[in-house]
Every structure is written in structure tokens, then in C-alpha cells.
Amino acid sequence: MPPKPQPQIIRVVDLETTGSAPPAHGVCEIGWQDVALGEDGRWELDGEGGSILVNPGRPIPPVTQAIHHILDDQVADAPFWHDVARRVLDPWPRRVALAAHRADFEQQFCTPTLTKGADWICTWKCALRLWPDSPSFSNQVLRYWRRPYGIDHERGLPAHRAFPDAYVTAFHLRDQLNEASVAQLIEWSTNPGLIPRVRYGPDRGKGWREIDHDSLMGFLTDRDPDIRFTANAEMDRRSGGGAVGRPSAQDLLL
Which of 3, 158, 211, 239 is found 20 to 30 A from 167 (Cα to Cα)? Predict the structure, then answer.
């Protein structure tokens, strides 16, 4: 009897780096955790995940060491990024897509050449759509606000290390995949974020539907692409051509 085929996966990844602007900055750790579609049609975490320290090819600045606490001595003998990236980012033939929380950051380092052009799911952008009532949308706030079923508290610590962060993100992804399709999550992830509430100014904290027309107009040219995208979406909604906020059941079936 032939062996049972393994399920396809979406691989959640998280990077710890020397900074936010490659090539001036490099990767010093990558972590991953897979999420797979079960026979019952539900998505669940799959496998143990893992992490690899990476030599970033330059000193780690104290400002970033203060976030992830990775020391230069710990990565001095580690492999370089291009020696580990492809085998972690492309677990062929099982991978459907890659995912990360605020995936725009990871995508700066995980280039299409390294991922073989993989689709990405941004769990931050999808959380804005699916859970707009959250007090914040960071990985950790979502963790404690939502308290996803089955998460091991200690396995998700310490925060700001690659595997624990990927592990926590995988629970958000699992629940998002069980609310919306893979195609829908990828579509949302290719656009800027749809921000549920006004972030600053006299209307701070209000939903976009609550602010007046003149205030909304002021956000159409905001420097933040997420704010511009959201303001334009609300303008479209007021013109009968779009929606802002929680998606309808029909939207989730797309």
C-alpha cells in the first residue's frame, strides 16, 4: 500500500535581523511553523517548526540586540542567509504559500528569487479585516486578546525570537484560514492594510464611517499608504462602490 501523501502546508516564517533596510541590514535568525489542511477540512498546526541562527555578515547593533537579544558571538559561526534561506522558504512540494505577521518586512529579505515567487499571506492585514474590534493588531496583543485554542504559553516565549513569534503567528493564521479562503487571505495581503479606526488627529479612535466628509478628504493624501488606502475605500463605500470594516459572509466565501 503506497504511503499516505502528506498534506499541503502554508509555512509561517519570522525573521530577526540587524535592522529593517536590506542590503544594509541582514538576517540573524529565521523561524518557521507550518499550518496544514486536515482531512476534516480544518486548518491546524503541522509539525514541530524550528529556527536557525544566521550570520548576518555584519555586527548586530545594540538597538536591535535590545529587541531580540541575539549576540554577535552566537552567530559568528552560523551559516549565511543564502545558505539556509531556500531550504526553509521552499519546502517543496508541500508549500502553498508563505505567511508572516506584517509580511512586508519579511518580504524585503525573503525575495522572490529565494522563495521561487511564492504567494504571501500577511496575518496583520488579514487580522484588520477579520478581527477589527481588537484593541491592537500586533502579534502579541492578538495573542492575548484572542487567546487562540491550543496555544502553549511557554512555547510562544520569548517574544521577539524567530520560532516563538512564528509559532504564535501560526495560530492566528490557522484561525484566519478557518474563517476565509486561502485566495481571500492572499488577496487582502497584496493590498495595503484596511485600518479599522482613525489613528490620529481630532477623530482618533473613531470608525471611518463616523467621520465627516471634510475629515475623510484630508486622509486621501496621507503619507501612510494604509491610511490612504482605507480613506479611499471609505470614500468608495460612501459612493456605493465598496465597504470598510468587517467583511460580509458573502465576502468571506470569495
Answer: 3
For residue 240, name the pLDDT band (cuts at 50, 70, 90): confident
> Given 3.30.420.10, 3.90.940.10, 3.40.630.10, 3.40.190.10, which CATH number is that of 9-190?
3.30.420.10
The overall average pLDDT reported for the chain is 93
Burial of 243 by CB count in 10 Å (0-12 exposed, 13-18 middle, 19+ buried)? middle
Q: What percent of the chain has pLDDT over 70?
A: 93
**Tell me: the pLDDT tens digits for 162-198?**
999 999 999 999 999 999 999 999 999 999 999 999 9
Instruction: Tell how many helices (H) and how many strands (E) occur in the chain.
Output: 12, 5
Instruction: Select from 91, 92, 146, 85 the least CA-distant residue to 111.
Output: 85
Q: How far is CA 128 from the centre of its chain?
A: 11
Q: Is 48 helix (H, G, I), strand (E, B) or coil?
A: strand
**Structural element, H or E, at residue 237:** helix 225-238
